[in-house]
Amino acid sequence: MASSYWSNSPAKSFRFFKIVLTDIDSHSKLMIPRKFVKIFGKNMDNRIHLSAPSGSVWSVDLEKQKDEVWMQNGWPEFAKFYSISFGYLLVFEYKGDAKFEVLIFDPIAVEIDYP
């Protein structure tokens, strides 16, 4: 049963969340959970695409080190555009083909008004 839940089927989605625990600057990176990388990493090359409900799409480069994958170039710009900072909660929904929809919640747990 567990294997069908984690399938790569387009009918199913896979989500993970991250809580921002540091300030974000131009050199900031965000790690993709190892379990996600283990399951879906083969579908991601060196770049992913993030979109928010506003419809904007951001290209983000990946940095791979052993079994860790980090969002790098493009991530600080995405964070700055949406004013993401310490205490924000981000929910990433994998849409396949290295595409993610991102929901953004502020430190008081309310989804932001997307610009």
UniProtKB/TrEMBL annotation:
Any one GO cellular component localisation term in the record: nucleus
Keywords linked to the UniProt accession: DNA-binding, Nucleus, Transcription, Transcription regulation
GO molecular function annotations of the record: DNA binding
Cellular location(s): Nucleus
PROSITE patterns associated with the record: B3
Residues annotated as domain TF-B3: 15-108
InterPro entries: B3_DNA-bd, DNA-bd_pseudobarrel_sf, Plant_B3_domain
Pfam families in UniProt: B3
Principal place of residence: nucleus
Name used for this protein in its record: B3 DNA-binding domain protein
